[in-house]
Structure formats: structure tokens, C-alpha cells
Write a structure and sequence with these properties.
GO molecular function, one term: DNA binding
InterPro entries: Clp_protease_adapter_ClpF (IPR053189), Hemimethylated_DNA-bd_dom (IPR011722), Hemimethylated_DNA-bd_sf (IPR036623)
Number of strands: 7
Number of domains: 2
Oligomer: single chain
Shape: elongated
CATH class of the largest domain: Mainly Beta
Largest sheet: 5 strands, antiparallel
CATH superfamily of the largest domain: Hemimethylated DNA-binding domain
Order of helices and strands: HHEEHEEEHEEH
Helix content: 25-40%
CATH topology of the largest domain: SH3 type barrels
Structural class: alpha+beta
Protein name: UvrB uvrC motif-containing
Organism: Chlorella sorokiniana (Freshwater green alga)
Strand order of the largest sheet: 4-3-2-1-5
Distance between the termini: 38 Å
Radius of gyration: 18 Å
Mean pLDDT: 77
Amino acid sequence: MAARALASHRAPAPSRPDPALLRRRSPAAAPVSRGARQPTAASSCGSGAHPSEQQQELQETLQSLHDRIESYKAQLLVYVHHEDFGRAAAARDALMPLQLRARQLQLAAERHRNGAVLHAIGTVIRHRRYGYRGVIAGHDPRCQAEEAWIQQMRVDMLPGGREQPFYSVLVDERDRPGGQTTYVAQENIICVRKPNEVEHPLIPQLFVGFSPEEAAYIPGPSLRARYPAEF
């Protein structure tokens, strides 16, 4: 058990988009045995597979997204040519979140090659060990929690230890009531394929919408300002 201990509880980490917004208490979770692997998502996340397999999955997802973008662009040109401006506007509006997601995935692919932060802001995830769902609202290149918390959560006993990226996660209230946030090691992040929306009181303040097709939330101005390199 100790070898698979996870830092999954709230910590005062500087990755938080707004510390005042994310100030919630998360009770310690009882240890549970590791379950079966969860399915991966068509997003910036990997499945816990070998890094080369994760990179291939990411590239395939990015290519699929680019194909959809080109299809919408072609439709847009046809609608404009025929002066069907209503459909042209709809196609344009559909393009915007796809182009944003493509940009995020491209950056994620670059981070993956560099062994850095893999998962984008807004990605819907499931905790590998405890199974709860959530959405990523922040990240750090390494664990930024206080030393006492690191020792309490046995972070250094994780295979990746404290030097791996850590993520601030808004936890779905259907899994853990009370508007909790957690601080999760990268190795314990699993993406959710075709997820439902996450229920958390901070989501309307941090995100401007949800894209079911991309299995992700669209970050709002505060998150874009805090993580400009991701957009």
C-alpha cells in the first residue's frame, strides 16, 4: 500500500487558479485497493500506458481533431459562398472551441516529449486509486505542497515522488460532497472517455463552458491569465 500512496488531498499549492476560490477542506480518504484501469480519453491525458503509447494516442487524437477542424472550415466556405450566413455563423462558433483544444493538445504533445506536465487545464479525469471524478483546474511541474503534507501523504513513496507534476482537481460533488479540491500526482491521473459534466461550485467561476466532444471544460479568463503558455 505504502508504495502506491497517493497525494490526493488538498494542499496549499501555488498552482491554484485562485487560492481564495479553492480553499476547501478535503477529508483523508481511506486506503483502497487498486482497481482495474479506467478507459482513456480523447484529450491531453494518457492512460498510464507506456510513454510511447501515450504519445501515439495523443498524436492520433490531435490528428482526428485537425481533420474535424478542416471539415468545419470547408463547410464554412460553402455556407459563405451560398450566403447561408446562419449556418456559416454556426460553423464558425463550432470551430472556436475545436481550435482552442487543438492548441492545447499540441502543447500537451510538446510537454509529453519533454517529460513535463501532460494534462491540460479543463480535462475531466478520474483518480487512478480512489476512483473519484474531477476536472483539472491547475498544475505545478513538481509538488509544491508543504513538507508536512508531503510526509503525511507519503509522496516520496510514489514511483514518481515529489518531482513529478501535480494537479489541482475540482472533485465531483456526486463522488465527494462539499466542494472539495485535491492535489494529485500525475501518475494517478486517468482521463475519462466521453465524460458527463462535473458538479462543483467553482466551475462557473473558472470555466466558460463544457465541450462533450473534447471531454473537457473551456477555461475562463482567470485560468488563461494564470497559464498563458497553455493557450
